[in-house]
Fold these 2 entries.
Entry 1:
Amino acid sequence: NPIQAPELNKCGTATNLNNGEKLDINCCPPISDRIIDYKLPPVFQMKIRPSAHRVSPEYMFKFNTAIDRMKRLPKDDPRNFMQQANIHCAYCNGAYDQPGQGTLDLQIHNSWLFFPFHRWYLYFYERILGKLIGDPTFALPFWNWDNPKGMTMPPMFVDPKSSLYDKKRNQEHLPPAVVDLGLTNSTDTLQVVANNLTIMYSEMIRGNSDANDFMGQAYREGDESSAKAAGSSERGSHTSVHAWVGDFKDQPSGEDMGNFYSAGRDPLFYSHHANVDRMWTLWQYFLPSNKVPDKRITDTDFLNTAFLFYDENAQLVRVTVKDCLDNLRMGYDFERIDLPWLDYRP
Ligand code: C2O
């Protein structure tokens, strides 16, 4: 059977998965007794997510204002910045149990739920930001770390005066440091860029022989989560970027990006995941498909998995995986950027 949406009133203590200790923060959302089954609204105008390295000053100003307003919402408003960050903690650090399965944790990483869960998470995050600035066309920027022109932290996130700034990042990886998808620690920048492209080629194309290789393995009601079940993209570039941004030197546990419970506290997280989400779209619709002719997973346990989120009007909604398989139906697309890894055979 599919994993059911968590029961918010049974949300409990979360665990720091980097060290196994109980966390002393409460990452449970406010409770609501009304749950609405979410219907995707009709799309009147496509939102275009831009590359974070290419946005205009006007865009930066809007984004900055939206995040600032999110931070100023009342602490118990489910759309508040910290509440949004805690969504990640609740779904990833064992605060929720699988309904009807005793104390078996719900864990949306390391499986075929990875892409769908984060897609819905960003979807509502983006709508909340748009609502806060009265701009329904607002679209999150993606951190284009798969292209040499995007392989540094995007400038707008590293200005200490900006609401997009987070001080809990690896200080040695601020620009101009080049993102290192293989975590090689090499100081030879050209070598790192070449290695990044090789990694992208292999996790997007070469390494996948079926849809689960890319998406992640099945995860059904009653299953225990296993790190071995992550798909190529989750395991590879996705995790490396978390570890590369997080501060493992001066923070106790890789905060913010290097730890599940705190990752969502860094505004950069949502742009990182916007690019991860873009990888899913590229893989589905734009990549040569000779090796994986059918990119759809049709298993109903996958399609009917449900999650809960608060929408831009602070209403609790239940969403399912089957409604998030096509980003265009969800009303957003990505700025077209070339894919230098496409033919980057090692
Ligand atoms: Cu939910 Cu990038 O992790």
Entry 2:
Amino acid sequence: MDHLTVVDHPLVQHKLTLMRRTKTSTAEFRRLLREISQLLAYEVTRELPMTTKRIQTPMQEMDAPVLDGRKLALVSILRAGNGLLDGMLELVPSARVGFVGLYRDEETLEPVQYYFKVPSELDERLVIAVDPMLATGNSSAAAIDLLKEAGAKDIRFLCLLAAPEGVARMKEAHPDVPIVTASLDERLNEKGYIMPGLGDAGDRMFGTK
Ligand code: URA
């Protein structure tokens, strides 16, 4: 997979435009995020290994394609990652789920871990880390560090929007982790927000300020 894949499917792009608008309500934002996450999940799982299984149709026996290997691990980077996770789980209901919680230390500006719980045998699973906004890339890179420390070897990063700064940071820290996103936006502003972006993804999906 390329290091960066922008999913330019018309349905993804249309739904993303609706999500960006200030006037889009919390309920609508959440519904659109769930829908887009399923379309992005389709793209990020495109190259999953397959095998065949002997089955009986009403007409005859056949060797039919099925997913091979261990169940996927979806890892939500709290808290906004949960918005992407919900939709993906509808598409991949048997996936195992992990959570990484990080906050930014106001003095050092470094990400600090406050929660970490991931599925077993991480080294044998495809691990998809999800966070809607790849902004500076600092917390995303730190989350991937933690997943690698826990044994993950095959990791993909799924986000809704990416800033060029965040993509560059991830490429430098984790060149082996492909990024799938719905849009590569223009830049970060001085407060670390993605421009034109959609504001604070967590606040918009949970209705907080
Ligand atoms: N996190 C967000 O929620 N929005 C941004 O624009 C950047 C980081």
